[in-house]
Amino acid sequence: MTEIRRNEIITELAESLQDREYDRFIKCFEENAVLEIPFMADGGIVHKGLPEIKKHFENVAADSMTNLIRIEEIMAKTYHSEEVATVEFFTKGRLISTGETFHIPSAVAIIRFGETGIVHYKDIPNTVCIAKKAGVLNQVLDSWKEK
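Below the sequence we write its predicted structure tokens.
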């Protein structure tokens, strides 16, 4: 895959996240791709194949925290090395409840490309900062406490 095509896919990822069009995001993946979210309070998760990845994004769309912020723009800064890209995502948006604006570093992704699309996507979201901006940090922290 050419660097131009990899950059087109990264642009598509950022735009689809910005517009919350997760089906568009998923179309960037190859059929047997892996989505990994390694740094979570209750351990990492790995989704293998498009059906599992699609289910993950259905859950993201249904998550109440998703609807606490209006995303106005997602910018991507990319570092390439052949078939792998490290991408920093930055989100500019507004809180639904107060109208307050924010601009935060929202995630880092390590993306490995195959012949036609993404074969492995390691997502490292800035969960604490996002939750703080959305006004739900205490609820998120409470959900991480051991029971």
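The radius of gyration is 15 Å.
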